[in-house]
């Protein structure tokens, strides 16, 4: 979905387009043009009268309106530097796999199932899309990479009655893999029922995300990270996407209080979600900017904004 498509979404007109912003931009443009004419008239008396006869009021209005539209157009990326840290947080509207350098964060389940058959992992999920892009039909290679990463971690239990894999890991368990030069963190975010249906609670997702940050702090590098709105898709959280984006931001900022572990976090909102679920981008961007500007880091914890981590 390009910018023209975003113009056609309800979320843009409901949350992103501002009459006030448009009028301000229009007045700034009109005032600037008029001031330019007055300055020109001061130095070159009589020239403005010639311009007025050659340039109609309609061209003057058209130029002001075009500038106002340009200033009011929606963006695909909103970026803010976290105060006190050389870390940037972004909200990005687009395809999750657009990023060409960041390490993907992939929501998985506590048994790290990989099969795209038997309704275990949906091809439409982020994990399903990742598998098709980077492993295609070689699911066994993905299993091998996950098993190698999880080799030093013991499962907490087994369930031989459920579909797929029987070994169950703790929520937040993370497996780091590299494929075709791309890095990905698979994080156990949801429990899988015996019939292959994934589900989770908001509290569990927040715990899992916190453990993910701790894993990256301990074992990851400083590379950029790319995260979707976890929990709102096939994990079936009842909370809307706006809430979960804010929770991701708060959790990440809290983790940054102890150590800088990435140079950039990109939170990706798919255009489909923006259109279907009426995501309030304007409110999320305001929340992001406020959090980045006013969070205070003191002795291993965050104050004012975020949650205590130390």
Polypeptide structure, described:
There is one protein chain. The protein starts with a helix and ends in a 7-residue tail after the last strand. The chain is of the alpha/beta class and 310 residues long. The protein is 43% helix and 18% strand. The strands form three sheets. Strands 1, 2, 3, 6, 7, 8, 9 and 10 form an eight-stranded mixed sheet that branches. Helix 3 (19-43) packs across helix 5 (57-72) and helix 9 runs parallel beside helix 11. It has helices at 3-7, 10-16, 19-43, 47-54, 57-72, 126-134, 139-149, 202-219, 241-255, 271-276, 281-294; strands at 77-81, 88-93, 103-109, 157-158, 167-168, 174-179, 182-192, 198-199, 225-227, 264-269, 296-298, 301-303.
Features of this protein?
310 residues, alpha/beta, Leucine Aminopeptidase, subunit E, domain 1, 2 domains, eight-stranded mixed beta sheet, two-stranded antiparallel sheet, 18% strand, elongated
What does the secondary structure layout of this molecule look like, with pairings?
Blueprint: H1 3-7, H2 10-16, H3 19-43, H4 47-54, H5 57-72, E1 77-81, E2 88-93, E3 103-109, H6 126-134, H7 139-149, E4 157-158, E5 167-168, E6 174-179, E7 182-192, E8 198-199, H8 202-219, E9 225-227, H9 241-255, E10 264-269, H10 271-276, H11 281-294, E11 296-298, E12 301-303
Parallel strand pairs: 2-10, 3-7, 3-9, 9-10
Antiparallel strand pairs: 1-2, 4-5, 6-7, 7-8, 11-12
